[in-house]
Amino acid sequence: MGIEPRFYVVEKEGPIIIWKFSNPPKNLATIETGEELGQLVEEFDKDDELRVGILTSAVPGMFIQHFDVSSILDWAEGLSQASDEEVEQQLAMLPEPSILGNRTSKPIICAINGPVEGGGCELAMSCDFRFISKDAFMGQPEVTAGFPPGYGIPRMIQLIGLGRTLELCLTGRRVYPEEAEQIGLATKACAPEELMPAVMAFAQSLAAKPKVGLDLTKKTVYECADLTLHQGLVLNRKTFFESIRSEDALNLMRLYVSVGQDREKLAAMLLEQEN
Fold this sequence. Notes:
By secondary structure, the protein is an alpha/beta fold.
């Protein structure tokens, strides 16, 4: 039995699931909304019928404004009265931090259909891909409130590099869609009316890939990001050997060789089999 979500409108289209964030009027992220999304992703990961997840907003004109600052203020008030030792104890009790994309081997696409800053931007970055509407923007303005982003800096460095991360986080400026795509913060910038069709087409193309290949490729990319070059090469070789032994990979390679290693002929054959 799945959970009854309070903050997400959940829709399914074949092997694709869509989570539409809904916490009006400002669509603020909270501990509760994050925990609920974690549960939804856990269910998604365990459902063999589902292949791709999409995170977007159900509130027109707003993706996620940012994390609820009133909650941060409550924590800060308490922490300001605590000793350094007590703060260390609280930190030790927290779960290990992780990005959303690491919680499942399946791809998660973020469809940014409105402005997003702060904790909302960090959540978008924690997805595997980000498509952004051209009437939206992204940003990490926390420096203007006297603190750094809470958990998104390492992920931003992975996406856009150290220099750009430093500039964006120290200025707190907004990043508009064309620049976001250019620097790699977004996968693609889309006209508002084309956002969801583009996301769905991309999701369907991923869902059509062999599951074992998709899962192990994503796993390899994420794990290699945290390794030295040599460690990454060793892991890459291991997952390659693991995947080519699967029945899906064997069948596809056999078909590919049988059509003279012609990619277009293979695609046509697979399409004919589907129909």
